[in-house]
Amino acid sequence: MPLPIPGIASRRALAATAVAAITVLSAAGCADFSEQERSAEAGSFTTVPDGAAGPKPPPPPPPPTEEDRPVPSGPCVDPNPAVIATCLGTTSGVRPADPEGKSTYVAERTTGKIIISQRYGPQRTVATVPVDAAGDGGLIDFELSPTYLQDQMIYALISTGSDNRVVRIASGSSVKPILTGIPKGATGNMGSISFVSPTELRVATGNAGNAAAAADPGSLAGKLFTIDPNLTEPRPKIIASGFGANVALCPDPESGNLFVADSGPAGDRLQQVEAGGLRSLWTWADRPGITGCAVSGGVISVSMAKAFRIDSLAAPSNANPAVGNPQQGDVKEQYGAVGRMTSFGAAMQIATVNKSVPGAPPTTTNDRVAIYTGGASSADDNT
């Protein structure tokens, strides 16, 4: 029987705080708030006394919706209405920047930039961290501080010339190492981070191209562990080991269960983290190229970059612990190769990695972030 990961209540409260902080940040100048600006320019209004002479003016027209606004021109305008960020470098982590998911924070793996964007812009870099992007390293993943509204801190998993490490990025892109010495390799660097609470950051690392290191308890390669990012020298608490490449965390916001997708020794796979260890849910022996995962509405979605598809599986429950056969969703024509994913409400944001995947469609607006609502339902057969 799957057991919920400790800290569910804290993590739910944290998620609410993070969304509120993101929304305030977007309102502070990271998105298009022309409606508020027009209202401010119109000046203040006074109440017309009862019985005043003259006809009443007609009510003001409703503010234009996104569909009413003229479509801008230019090489970075994507015709797909689900696309909310365009002309990006090779992407990695992605996070919604408002509760409706209409704006996004997205990391460029090779440039070390974290960018905020919405459909038709504006697009702005909120932080930049120096990285070594050789192989599959670089800016691997990021998370906003649980108290971002107060401290303006961003945490990131990055590659340097000598190691992979967790760092804290302050306002103005000042970078401070939090945990160093995570093994780095020519491949197998991609990992994932997420907050459980303000004092507990979850970190998943790749095996740095060395399967033996993933099994070695003395190595931080191929591990899932937690640290307190507030400490000067945090001590990692190992939760699970044996991960391969392209390790992606996908917590379920509803149940609190934690799933991990990676490319392991026997193939690409999806596992559930339980109190006693890892439980295998599904393995793809043909290695379609796992690059990300997200859980929304009782469905686990797993992106397969090399196969240009997103597979969907019904999330396990106490009543039905199996996941059933994955439903395959071909996204090559619409999006190409999809990398990291994140959920919000009943939908997801997906970030493409077409610039780094051979055979990906050469779309002029690559790389992109889009809202994705495809997938199986939680009522799908679990046979």
Automatic annotation (TrEMBL):
Keywords in alphabetical order: Signal
Task: Name the SUPFAM superfamilies on file.
Answer: Calcium-dependent phosphotriesterase
- Which residues does UniProt assign to the signal peptide? 1-27
| Domain of life according to the entry | Bacteria
Kindly list the residue ranges recorded as spanning the membrane: none
Which stretches make up the Glucose/Sorbosone dehydrogenase domain? 103-276
Biased amino acid composition, Pro residues: 55-64
Segments carrying the region annotation (Disordered) are 35-78, 357-383
This one is known as: PQQ-dependent sugar dehydrogenase
